[in-house]
TrEMBL record:
Signal peptide: 1-23
Protein name in the entry: Soluble cytochrome b562
InterPro entries with a match to the protein in the record: Cyt_b562, Cyt_c/b562
Molecular function GO terms recorded: electron transfer activity; heme binding; iron ion binding
Cofactor note: Binds 1 heme b (iron(II)-protoporphyrin IX) group per molecule.
Cofactor(s) in the UniProt record: heme b
SUPFAM superfamilies in the cross-refs: Cytochromes
GO biological process: electron transport chain
GO cellular component, one term: periplasmic space
Protein keywords: Heme, Iron, Metal-binding, Signal
Family, similarity comment: Belongs to the cytochrome b562 family.
Length: 129
């Protein structure tokens, strides 16, 4: 009985340590998706800028999280560096779209959103568990 209780406590501690991080990553993914939808639907520069800033913040946070597929990998492992590179690409693309919005090139910015979706889809296939 004592061994079962100890095992249960150890398991609970392990799960409690990883669940918040995984929850943050999921929340960041939802933020990215929600704001991408805003960008696709809106033509208002202020709304687009806000959505792009939200996406950038979520991408920066998610970049530091560890997905299930890389659980147990060290922060400096080649796999983690590659995972972070995907976010670097996404953040760069978000910045490019934001520059277009700042210049008033709303239609160009909306056309560039396809690159964001392609980046998301290709990196999702690689690291989503």
């Amino acid at each position: 009985m004592r061994k079962q209780i100890v095992s249960l406590l150890v398991l609970s501690c392990l799960m409690a340590g990883t669940t918040p991080a995984l929850g943050r990553l999921q929340s960041d993914m939802q933020t990215l998706a929600k704001n991408l939808a805003v960008i696709e639907k809106s033509n208002d520069a202020t709304e687009l800028k806000g959505a792009l800033q939200n996406m950038r913040s979520a991408a920066l946070t998610a970049r530091e999280e560890i997905p299930f597929s890389l659980d147990g990998k060290k922060a400096d492992s080649p796999e983690m560096k590659n995972y972070q590179q995907g976010y670097d690409i996404l953040i760069s693309q978000i910045d490019q779209v934001a520059e277009l919005v700042d210049k008033g090139s709303i239609e160009e910015a909306k056309a560039a959103v396809d690159k964001l979706k392609n980046t998301r889809n290709s990196w999702h296939m690689k690291y989503r568990s």
